[in-house]
Amino acid sequence: MSRLTKLVLAAAATLLAQPVLAQDCKVTVGRIVPITGPLLDMGRETPWLDDNKVKPINAAGGLQVGSKKCRIEYKIYDTKGTMAGSAEAATRAILQDKVDVILAQGTPDTTNAPADLCERYQLPCITSDTPIEAWLYGPDGKPKTYKYTYHFFFGVPDLVKNHVGMIKALPGGFNGSIGYLYPNDPDGTVFASLFDPVFKGEGWKPTDPGRFAQGLPDFSSIINQFKRNKVEVVTGVLAPPDLQNYLQQAAQANYKPKMYIIDKGTGYPEPMKAIGKNGIDILSVNFWSPAFPGKTKYGGYDGQGLVDAYEKQNPGKSYSPPLAWSDAMYDVLFDALQRAGTTDRAKLLEALGKTDLDTVVGKIKFNEQHYSVSPLGGAQWHEVNGKLVKENVYNAVYPEVKKTANMKLYQAK
């Protein structure tokens, strides 16, 4: 055997010993996410999160799927924070770019239209960061039947239990007088209809100024009603500008209840920083923080590890909850691909339905209606060493979401 022949055979043996390279298998992910518009806080970590998740896998030759190594590619589609924008984005991803799977997150405005389109075009879809009921139920009030879409997030019954529990846990008790800040928008209308009968059932007396217009410039009449009725707990769902406006006017009127529980405008660090000192000690639902249980199968980090990596590589920025939900959606996809052992669409869908996976947002296990209920807690924004920090102060609904601080009265001295 010639020396040249030996070299050729050795080279061939070396090549055969290598894993199948990712070039012969590619999975393209369409990421439907708000990058601009009113919901941009839900997309601030994009595409850092995508690179953090995908690059290590591709650097190792790809994701092992059966006998192949599959390269993961992602394409970002901006929903502009609207239902129409998310429908347009998903349509482009599915029909024009022909992605293999859709990942959509961030309120019904971003998740619901892509989910419906995936059902129409029979494309695997994973959605999150939208309350389950807002994803599950159609305009007729009946649950949808999903075949191609799987969803995970918290459920409304747990949200209600969490709010009632936080009020009952108020240090020093409360006089039963509760005030509403529910505007005349979809969130305000739904929240009022959910919470009002429950609060009344607890024997509490509401001061309800009615559904006011979003962007209301003058809250003085509402604040005066709260003062007259000695309201000690104010609950509502406000966009950041309205919350900032209300809190400034309440401070000027020298009105300070024992507790604020405000959702929507309080879920993200950037709006809370903009609100400033008046936002300290406000409570809200904690739909994710490093207090949540679990860790990722793809990278090995827990929630705190994910936050630390993001904040280290993005100096001056604070994490927001969608960081974790995006991470978990990728995990669900990767895990299903590996269990399917193929990129075949039918087998991938079958594997998605059998998901039983630990992630940074907790355990994900889909039921027959294609959703998995995730834990939640009670958050309060504390000032720690001059920095606004979201602490988990209530965990009776899901004890596995550990408490990181004790609940305080609103700006008590």
Spatial order of strands in the largest sheet: 2-3-1-4-5-6-14
| Computed Rg | 24 Å
List the helices and strands in order.
HEHEEHEHEHEHEHEHEHEHEHHHEEEEE
Contiguous runs where pLDDT drops below 50 for at least 5 residues: 3-22
Q: Could you give a short account of the major beta sheet?
A: 7 strands, mixed
Report how far apart the termini are: 90 Å
Helix content percent band:
25-40%
Mean pLDDT: 93
Shape: globular
How much strand?
A: 15-25%
SS class: alpha/beta
Number of strands: 16
The helix count comes to 13
Describe this structure in words.
The protein is 38% helix and 21% strand. Residues 3-22 have low confidence and may be disordered. It has helices spanning 3-17, 48-59, 83-96, 108-121, 132-136, 156-168, 186-201, 220-228, 240-252, 269-275, 303-313, 322-340, 345-353, and strands at residues 26-33, 63-65, 68-78, 101-105, 125-128, 149-153, 177-181, 205-207, 233-238, 259-264, 283-286, 356-359, 362-365, 371-373, 377-384, 387-394. The longest helix has 19 residues, at 322-340. The chain contains 13 helices and 16 strands. A hairpin with a 2-residue loop joins strand 12 and strand 13. The chain is an alpha/beta fold and 413 residues long.
Task: Please name the defining characteristics of this protein.
alpha/beta; 16 strands; 413 residues; 13 helices; disordered N terminus; 7-stranded mixed β-sheet
